[in-house]
Amino acid sequence: MRKRRRWLHHLSRPVGLVITAAVLAVALPLAIKPPAALGPEAAQREFSADRALEILRGLLRESRPHVAGSAANKEIRKRISDLLRSWGYEAEIQQRFHCHPAFASCAPVENIIAVKPGNEGRKAVLLTAHYDSSWAGPGASDDGAGTAAVLEIARMAAHDGAYRNDLVFLITDGEELGLIGAHAFASHHELFQRVGVVINLEARGVTGPSTMFETGEGNRSLIRILSRELRRPVANSLAYEVYKRMPNDTDYSVYKALGVPGLNFAFTGGVALYHSRLDDVAHLDPGSLQHHGQNAWSLVTALADRDIAKLQSKEDAAYIDVFGRFVWHYPVSTASGITVLLTVLILLGVALFLKSDISPSGVILALLAQITVGALLVGGAWLLRWPLGEWVSTHPIEHPQPWAAQFALFALCPWAVWVSCKLFAHRIGFGSATLACWLSFAALALWLDFNLPAASFVVLIPMVAFFVGLLLDMLRWRSGSGPVLATFFGFTTAGYIALYHFFMLDVVLPFSLSHVKAMPLVLLLLPLLPACFASAKDPIQGWRPALVLAGTVIAAALFHLFIPGFSEDRPRGMNLVYREQGEGHEALVYLESSGNRGDPVFVEANDFALREFPTLYASAGVNPRSGPALMSRPALEIPALGLAGVEAVAIRSLTQNFGDGHQVRTLRLTLKAPVGVEQMVIGLPQHAAVSEAHVNGVPALEQGAVSKRSDRPNLISITHPGAIPIEVEMVLAGPPPDKIAVTGRRALPESLWAEFSATWPRDAQPVHRGFRAEIVSEFTVSND
Q1: Quick one: average pLDDT of 645-654?
Q2: Confidence band (pLDDT; 50, 70, 90) for 440?
Q3: β-bridge partners, 654
Q4: Which residues contact 544 (CB under 8 A, 6 or more apart)?
Q5: Which of 74, 394, 486, 551 could cross-link with 469 by S-S, CB 3.0 to 4.6 Å?
Q6: Are 11 and 481 in contact (CB under 8 A)?
Q7: Highest-confidence range of 186-200, 237-251, 534-548, 673-687, by mean pLDDT?
Q8: Cα–Cα distance for residue pair 148/277, rounded to 1 Å
Q9: 615: buried, middle or exposed (CB in 10 Å: 19+, 13-18, 0-12)?
Q10: Using CA atoms, how far apart are residues 112 and 197, in angstroms rounded to an integer?
């Protein structure tokens, strides 16, 4: 018995707690990594990534970009519809020219729809992904993986028995251009009216677990189903709260805005390959595809036989997965009550155990010590943001070898604790420090309950664990060892929450925001302080350990500087862009890259120099509200190639006067794109706010259009406009402009690329819009 008590006593000491944190830091990434891919021999009712990869290879056999409206995309669409028909589906093609008014983006789209009828057929489960790619790459992950998973599930469902509800397999077009296909389906297809729940598959990288990062409002019922059905769930409501405040969108944004419940999944590792030429089948992690399909198949089969009308709950859930094995969840409406109850019980328990070691002055000093350790950690991480993320050229989010920078941030933790112990330990008792720690947790819980209730679990779970430990300690009160289990349980759960969110932020934040990355680690340090103070009763002599730890942090940060920020497998995104503005104007070739610096060797070898020139927002007649008027890029002036730009068949403004003195000003454009122009971009008039716009009679911009973006777009883009003249009508809230600018984008001429290909760096790949030529044409507006 004495040996067991001694073992428990050591478990709650600082060394035991630090070892526990180290184990968590290693175990957590391993626990939530994607599962192994199942081979083609897997049972027919088991999702197989190998079978889905075979489908994906067939779709992307040329491994080239396929933007909505392109010939390459039409070929992909045919292959998808042929597969669905071969499995017995009537593959419907919803074909239309459409615009999404929130993005002011238009394109011809071809959505692919297949339905497995249910026994009732009143409501439907919608499983969806998009098959178009970005301009730069083949889109094997974004969103070929989602498309392949949907197709493999459609094949599996075709051979399965009938379900209660209809299953709708929707593979949309034009997502990369502004959710155009999803908006067309929701606006113009009668089947959408029967959709009761949506499962959307996405990606923002090439690897990582398939994470459920977004749900709709009233998600408690769906979270219960997710918790019960998924074998390896990865989801937490704090990530959802963060995502709601980000400007990012997926197809589910369209359905969510219309009140349809849903679950949105994505994997986000390897973001350096996102929207790049290397987003191909060879770089796609089969485990991520396995996780994607496994999650979707489990939910599809579970929801297909449920009463979907009862899925919409009256409240949301707070939730987090535990080592990717199950989801701990509770209704957010109970958070305040749980917080108050736990606070009372914990304070009573601590007072009962440690009343002789608690003093008001000690509690106040302990609170100051907590503030100090938090400030040292976050402040130190703020100083590290320069060597880790700003002095060197790195990807905006991902680093190919992040371990040195991560170690530097982790090493800040013992440094901050040691300094705090040096300043406060000899004046604070264990009881005062423990009481102050859980008072801080309770205060943070109350703040979250009123401001971010779905995120309250980050402190409620450690509070629950600490209280359970107190109850167990009460059973062994006579041991005289104090709240040993409470200390260990509270620290372990707080450490799990802290490290979980540290690694979560690692895939969405760059090292230039190291201070934000480090914030979750404060939760790790607060429960560690009481144990450290208890082990340092005498004043700590000297600052040598703190200096050694500080030197370790600096050494790791400096070592990080010598690790290349890019590699061939994790390249820098860099586009070569030709720009010609107006007849007789200069022509430029410039580099578009993260940080706008480009590869220094390439810049020097080709005599590029930083130049300032107008952005598309600031070209003639364009309102620069949504962006800077000038941009600075490495550029080279070259003779104009004389590429044909967009032609203006007619441009005129009309003013209608009404009897009540009301005026309506309209700007009407008739534009024609020459052969080779893949996208035309119309700059909205300067000094004349546009309240609405139509392209070929389709609403293309509306003042009240729903979007997560804070400002309305001030460019109207039309992708693959074709040879037919485009009619654009804009209703103006101000006077009409004298001039307007229209940009025609086309592929970069091969002859121009040949001049630079020999010196193009191996660690650079085109991304997003990719290599291109932009011809800016300026037109005079005639007023009627």
Answers
A1: 87
A2: very high
A3: 666
A4: none
A5: 486
A6: no
A7: 186-200
A8: 19
A9: middle
A10: 18
Reply yes or no on whether the pLDDT at 70 is more than 50. yes
Exposed e or buried b for every residue in 319-340, given b needs 16+ CB within 10 A?
A: bbbeebeebebbebebbbebbe
pLDDT tens digits, residue range 286-336? 999 999 999 999 999 999 999 898 887 889 999 999 999 999 999 999 999
0.85 surpassed by pTM? yes
Q: Tell me phi and psi for residue 97, to 5 degrees.
A: -85, 125
Q: Is 706 helix (H, G, I), strand (E, B) or coil?
A: coil
Measured CA to CA, the distance from residue 292 to residue 266 in angstroms comes to: 8
Degrees to nearest 5, angle at CA 476 with 475 and 478 = 120
Contacts of 406 (CB under 8 A, 6+ apart): 506
Span 683-742, pLDDT tens digits: 876 555 788 899 999 999 887 666 666 555 678 999 999 888 999 998 887 777 778 889
For the chain, give the percent of residues with pLDDT over 70.
91
Q: H/E/C letters for each residue in 289-319? A: HHHHHHHHHHHHHHHCCCCHHHCCCCCCEEE
Residue 168's closest CA among 145, 141, 189, 184?
189
Main-chain dihedrals φ then ψ at residue 91, nearest 5 degrees? -75, 110
Amino acid of residue 515: H
Would you say residue 623 has pLDDT above 80? no
711: exposed, middle or buried (C-beta count within 10 Å: 0-12, 13-18, 19+)? exposed
**Sign (positive or negative) of CA dihedral 632, 635, 639, 643:** negative
556: closest CA among 684, 401, 694?
401
In which residue are the tokens 């959408």 written? 192
CA distance 741 to 651: 11
Q: What confidence score (pLDDT) does residue 621 get?
A: 44
Q: Are 737 and 621 in contact (CB under 8 A)?
A: yes
CB 268 within 8 A of CB 204: yes
The string over 719-742, giving b where at least 16 C-beta atoms fall within 10 Å of a residue's C-beta and e elsewhere, is: bbbeeeebebbbbbeeebbebbbb
Tell me the three state secondary structure of residue 381: helix
Can you tell me which residue has the tokens 């917080």?
A: 339
Q: What is the dihedral of CA 272, 277, 281, 287, to 10 degrees?
A: 10
Helix (H) or strand (E) holding 90: none
Sheet strands (E) in 313-451: 317-322, 326-331
**Distance between CA atoms of residues 327 and 91, nearest Å:** 37
Contact yes or no for 544/736 (Cβ under 8 A): no
